[in-house]
Design goal:
The chain is an alpha+beta fold and 94 residues long. It is 32% helix and 9% strand. A two-stranded antiparallel ribbon has the order 1-2.
């Protein structure tokens, strides 16, 4: 049986269900990277990088609820919550 998974530290998350193997059973795993990761990828040119960035930036375009979300974040971030200062006269000097 061959299935794909994602390695996260020392854990491999399986991307497909494995119902025919009961929990707690010892298994043998044969690891090999997927074929596309063995190729050497050519670095992107500056124009290609800029085009990809512009594509990502466009994802948030025309979403009016984002303005409300960022306004709320800004309010929370700048809200004064005060702080308690111990006055010398009220401190226990023992």
């Amino acid at each position: 049986m061959k299935i794909k998974g994602i390695k996260r530290g020392q854990i491999i998350e399986l991307l497909e269900p494995v119902d025919n193997i009961p929990d707690g059973v010892e298994i043998v795993v044969d690891l090999e990277p997927p074929p596309e990761s063995t190729e050497t990828k050519t670095p992107l040119t500056e124009e290609e990088r800029l085009a990809r960035l512009n594509q990502l930036f466009g994802v948030w375009k025309n979403q009016p609820e984002l303005t409300d979300i960022f306004d709320e974040i800004d309010k929370e971030r700048h809200a004064y919550r005060g702080r308690q200062i111990d006055i010398i006269d009220t401190q226990d000097n023992s």
